[in-house]
């Protein structure tokens, strides 16, 4: 069996949320499949997920928040103007994202959190994507990201810096 050529695969349409909370810090969560990543690069990420067929990206980002962190108590306060793409690392092509995509094409939103920490519930999904969460400084994002997502987090840290003031 020959390896899959990533160039032959499409990007999966996706949305991402930079959720601003207390003091202008942002919500980050540790991937449940990387439980030993405490403080390590790559184990932490922002909420994100696929866009359903015929779904509006603005609606998708609120749906994804509810699914991944247990609440959609947020309002959209900004949107990165461009779709951002990333390619999976070579070893993940053919296995991650159902093996059908080379990476993701993402629309990113800045959101203001309207709830309290108690509203964030990672335990509502029987197969949670995350097992821990915290509030982080926006500038920390690139250092927390898995290497193939780091360029996107660099862009987001610049694009949404105006919302980090608190």
Automatic annotation (TrEMBL):
Its cofactor is Mg(2+); a divalent metal cation. A motif (Nudix box) lies at residues 49-70. Its EC number is 3.6.1.-. Signal peptide: none annotated. It holds the Pfam family NUDIX. PROSITE patterns: NUDIX, NUDIX_BOX. SUPFAM superfamilies: Nudix. Coiled coil: none annotated. Accelerates the degradation of transcripts by removing pyrophosphate from the 5'-end of triphosphorylated RNA, leading to a more labile monophosphorylated state that can stimulate subsequent ribonuclease cleavage. This is RNA pyrophosphohydrolase. It comes from Limobrevibacterium gyesilva. The lineage of its organism: Bacteria, Pseudomonadati, Pseudomonadota, Alphaproteobacteria, Acetobacterales. The gene is rppH.
């Amino acid at each position: 069996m020959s390896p899959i050529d990533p160039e032959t695969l499409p990007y999966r349409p996706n949305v991402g949320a930079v959720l601003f909370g207390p003091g202008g810090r942002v919500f980050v969560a540790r991937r449940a499949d990387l439980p030993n990543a405490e403080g390590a690069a790559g184990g932490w990420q922002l909420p994100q997920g696929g866009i359903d067929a015929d779904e509006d990206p603005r609606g998708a980002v609120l749906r994804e928040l509810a699914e991944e962190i247990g609440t959609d108590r947020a309002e959209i306060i900004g949107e990165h103007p461009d779709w951002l793409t990333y390619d999976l690392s070579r070893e993940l092509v053919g296995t991650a994202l159902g093996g059908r995509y080379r990476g993701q094409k993402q629309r990113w939103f800045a959101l203001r959190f309207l709830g309290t920490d108690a509203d964030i519930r990672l335990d509502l999904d029987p197969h949670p994507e995350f097992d821990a969460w915290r509030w982080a400084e926006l500038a920390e994002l690139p250092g927390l990201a898995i290497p193939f997502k780091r360029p996107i987090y660099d862009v987001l840290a610049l694009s949404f810096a105006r919302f980090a003031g608190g």
